[in-house]
Amino acid sequence: TKISSSNDSIIHSVSSGKVIHECDYRNMGRMVFVENESGYVYIYGGNNDTYVKKGDKVSPGTEIGKAYSSKSGTAVVYFSVFKDNKAIDERKAPRT
Asked: What is the pTM of this model?
């Protein structure tokens, strides 16, 4: 899902879990993958800077990164959730 944001907005975790991957990805800025205890993987993309690294534990509200800055003053943040390699409706994914 693409979410419109303003430049330099802070991206927060919506669930607890462990950072399993953090990397640059194509034209989507830095990506952060967080897996919770139930096996849901939360993907936060569009980061210009990230504040977490592989192995870090996060909880709801943890600052994941800062949205990518653009000259227009708007940024696009990407958010997806997967379980068992299948996309899950982000609105229905657990937030604990």
From this structure: 0.91
